[in-house]
Amino acid sequence: SDAQRGRVMDSLNRLLDLAHEDSSKVNLLNKISQMHLQAGNFREARKSVSEALTLAKKLNYRKGIATAYNILGILDANEGKYSDAFKHHETALDISEQINDKNLASLSYTNMGIVLRIIGNYAEALKNLLTPLKITEELNDKRGIANVYNNIGEVHKFQGNYDDALKYHNI
């Protein structure tokens, strides 16, 4: 609910006021940005994620950098800047693989697949979604598996392959 989101946001902002210039502050800024993104407050989301990215780079906190690039990619996609979105997700993926963060890599591949679906490149979208499916299965990440299956189903739906779409949505 909006009231609950507001209380969470107030709590995060209070923590932010107390935060030192460290990885915890980067994580808070990224979380605040995600909350703004979910609420459709794209300008505020971009402001928070830009601050997170600047601090993460200053600290060389690569997980924070990759997370920020994923958020920037989602913001760009929401604004119709698909080329920028894809590049941001690709950068996030590169960093995720360098630091061997499989969850973040899986998220980056999924986000790239979503962008490819939006622009109508269904074959590449499916290819990009098979990798996070393998990763989430290896990690036994049931929520991640469900998310990837849902996105594979969406690709099939947009292709008009409704039987395949239903299969993936009902797994």
Question: Quick gist of this model?
Answer:
By secondary structure, the protein is mainly α. The chain is about 85% helix and about 0% strand.
Main structural class: mainly alpha
Largest sheet: none
- Distance between termini? 28 Å
Mean pLDDT: 91
Radius of gyration: 17 Å
Uncertain segments = none
Count of DSSP strands: 0
Shape: globular
Explain what you see.
It is globular and about 50 Å long. The chain has 9 helices and no strands. With 171 residues, the protein is mostly helical.
List keywords for this structure.
171 residues; 85% helix; mainly alpha; globular
Protein topology:
Layout: H1 2-18, H2 23-39, H3 42-59, H4 62-78, H5 82-98, H6 102-118, H7 122-138, H8 142-159, H9 162-169
Helix pairs in contact: 1-2, 2-3, 2-4, 3-4, 4-5, 4-6, 5-6, 6-7, 6-8, 7-8, 8-9
